[in-house]
Amino acid sequence: MNLADKNFKNLCKEILENGYSTKGEKVRPKYADGTPSHTFYINQVFEKYDLSKGEFPILTIRPIPWKSSIKEILWIYQDQSNELSLLKEKYNIHWWDDWNVGDGTIGQRYGATVKKHDLINKLLNNLKDAPLGRRHIINLYQEDDLESTPGLYPCAMETQWSVRDKYLDMTLIQRSSDLPVANSINKVQYVALQMMVARHVGLEPGTFCHYVNNAHIYDRHLTQIEELLSREGQTDAENIRLILNPEKTNFYDFTIDDFTLENYKPQKPNLKFELAI
């Protein structure tokens, strides 16, 4: 078991023992059968991992689709796209299909916002030109974009970047996190983004912080949570490493084939979770 497993299990226990429930309240999400999808939740969750010391935040108590996680981040920040056809044809990812707003996109969201406001290029340039600045921020929660089309509001909505000696530290801010389904996926993909940005600007990945304002467990996921809490995870999980091809330095040149995950042996079988749309 690693730090990510321990944090996950502790957070699940905290939610189940001391969290709040939306039962009896009006909620937006629904399951595929039309039933309102209620949650148990707590607010204001903070985790910190030192990547320079090998604290890679991936769960081992269940398999995490780490390649698909990184592919999604390439779609958002390299392709700067909101088109589902590109996501499916280039990366074979289909988990956004239910959020099609009717035109083959997820609306003016995520990659489309990155492109419209030139967010990643501004970040890369500013980190090179003024590394010690305290304004290195990418914010996907642009009100004019959210109001211009329908679509799911960004969950992983902001990153803040800070240079510390030879290290690039990064904080991911999420308004909402489906704990068993997406929380570890978001950690993995944003650490990959941190690694690519650090390489581009000549730094090393430092600390990765993850702040979640609402961490929740859906009411149809409780059986799976009980199973995950019973698992011990990988015995040598501290040796898991995500490696980025050392021969590349340009942010836009990296592909999924430039990432290698070493010594990842998650506990099986994997579990299925009914999505709330």
Provide a brief overview of the structure.
The protein is of the alpha+beta class and 277 residues long. The protein has helices spanning 3-18, 66-77, 84-91, 111-116, 119-129, 143-148, 179-200, 222-230, and strands at residues 20-21, 39-50, 136-139, 156-164, 167-174, 177-178, 204-218, 241-244, 259-262.
**Number of DSSP strands?**
9
CATH topology: Thymidylate Synthase, Chain A
From the spread of the alpha carbons, the general shape counts as globular
- Supply Rg: 18 Å
Can you walk through the features of this model?
- The structure is a single chain.
- The model has no long low-confidence stretch (mean pLDDT 97).
- The protein has 277 residues and is α+β, with helices and mostly antiparallel strands.
- The protein is globular.
- The relative contact order is 0.20.
- 32% of the residues lie in helices and 22% in strands.
- α2 (66-77) crosses α7.
- β4 and β5 (167-174) form a beta hairpin.
- The strands form 2 sheets. Strands 1, 2, 3, 4, 5, 6 and 7 form a 7-stranded mixed β-sheet that branches. A two-stranded antiparallel ribbon has the order 8-9.
